[in-house]
Amino acid sequence: MADTVDRVREDALPGQEASLEPKPDWTPRYPGSGRLAGKVAIVTGADSGIGRAVAALFAREGADIVVAYLCEHQDAQETERIVHAEGRKSLAFAGDLGDKAVCEELVYKTMAAFGHIDILVNNAGEQHPDKQIEDISEQQLRRTFQTNIFGMFFLTQAVVPHLKAGAAIINCTSVTMYQGSKELLDYSSTKGAITAFTRSLSENLIEKAIRVNAVAPGPIWTPLNPSGGASKEKLAHFGESTPMGRPGQPNEVAPSFLFLACEDASYMSGQVLHPNGGTIVGS
Predict the structure, then answer these.
(1) Which of 69, 108, 178, 187 is catalytic?
(2) Disulfide: which of 75, 100, 117, 197 matches 47 by Cβ 3.0-4.6 Å?
(3) Of 178, 130, 196, 132, which Cα lies nearest the Cα of 279?
């Protein structure tokens, strides 16, 4: 029975933004200024939520976008439409990035389509709430780590040989890495690993002039939580515990990714930005 429940919960993720009400706000707030002109960005989890907002903002700033996603084809098509409306090119790629071979195929197809890669946004992730540590099945534990940190490793390994000086890698960690989360033990553990990975990878690549940073969002209204990523009790009061008293929107997070991707952040590496509604955390 436990395995059946796990499969049902996983089948609901990452969730469709097309059916979510109210809709998350992904729309960029300002006209573009060409800060990413001529760049190619791979954005994982770009079909919806934070990933879609990042894709939209990067496209407005002049980047062509690789829309990497798991299985939500309708949402991915909408993200491509958004990118095209900004006058940029896109490549959609569906696959499980927890599989090393899939990551290698994604990079191969990106290079074949665009000839270069300038920005990698490791945003894809999954989470499953459990009230007790005993409730976390081995299958769920392995799956969460496979998606959230193994996939990040695999894709970065595949991308780095193609990056040149000035390239940027931005990873998505979480406020749960700093605060902890009693219902997201496995998820918050992966986010701790992502922060350590970010800092270590920055040290590893800095001599190549490749910057590595991260963004640690607080509670953001995306399909992830209402599609099974949060308990009903938590969802009923989602974001209310922040100092601002509300959840954030994806377009309130995307500018942090843009800043770290462009030359505005040329003297920053190994750092984490915190769009989290005012929650004070250690850096």
Answers:
(1) 187
(2) 75
(3) 178
| The Cα angle at residue 128 between residues 168 and 75, in degrees rounded to 5 | 60
- In the chain, the N- to C-terminal Cα span, in Å, equals 41
Tens-digit pLDDT profile for residues 125-143: 999 999 999 999 999 999 9
What would the pLDDT profile of 211-241 be if each residue is shown by its tens digit?
A: 999 999 999 988 766 655 455 666 666 778 8
Active site annotation includes 187: yes
Q: How far is CA 170 from CA 14, 20, 204, 231, in A?
A: 20, 27, 15, 29
